[in-house]
């Protein structure tokens, strides 16, 4: 039947939380670089404005600086949003890891309890009491 209908595309594995965190962090770094370039551009415009006299050319430079400033604010907003997403995913990842660790601990405790029960069955309390009594008798003599 596969020859007639063909095979479906293999399903992609579900997204891994660590991979998503890395992707979001990389995008945030990319936006951070853009913000750095815009800062340099704003500094350049600021220096130009200091040297210029009032007039239409100064107003044009102000408009360019305002456009760059709006872009910078937009990028900062996007970066903050990405950083919040990354933080939320890291919190979820931490919680998942903590639950896995707790499960491992509980499993180890169950195995330990079984071993203790087996060992306790081998210990005869009557023999221990007899030995203890004999030791006390020897100490009294």
Automatic annotation (TrEMBL):
<protein>
    <recommendedName>
        <fullName>Charged multivesicular body protein 5</fullName>
    </recommendedName>
</protein>
<comment type="similarity">
    <text>Belongs to the SNF7 family.</text>
</comment>
<dbReference type="GO" id="GO:0032511">
    <property type="term" value="P:late endosome to vacuole transport via multivesicular body sorting pathway"/>
</dbReference>
<keyword id="KW-0175">Coiled coil</keyword>
<feature type="region of interest" description="Disordered">
    <location>
        <begin position="1"/>
        <end position="20"/>
    </location>
</feature>
<dbReference type="GO" id="GO:0005771">
    <property type="term" value="C:multivesicular body"/>
</dbReference>
<feature type="compositionally biased region" description="Basic residues">
    <location>
        <begin position="1"/>
        <end position="10"/>
    </location>
</feature>
<dbReference type="InterPro" id="IPR005024">
    <property type="entry name" value="Snf7_fam"/>
</dbReference>
<dbReference type="GO" id="GO:0006900">
    <property type="term" value="P:vesicle budding from membrane"/>
</dbReference>
<dbReference type="Pfam" id="PF03357">
    <property type="entry name" value="Snf7"/>
</dbReference>
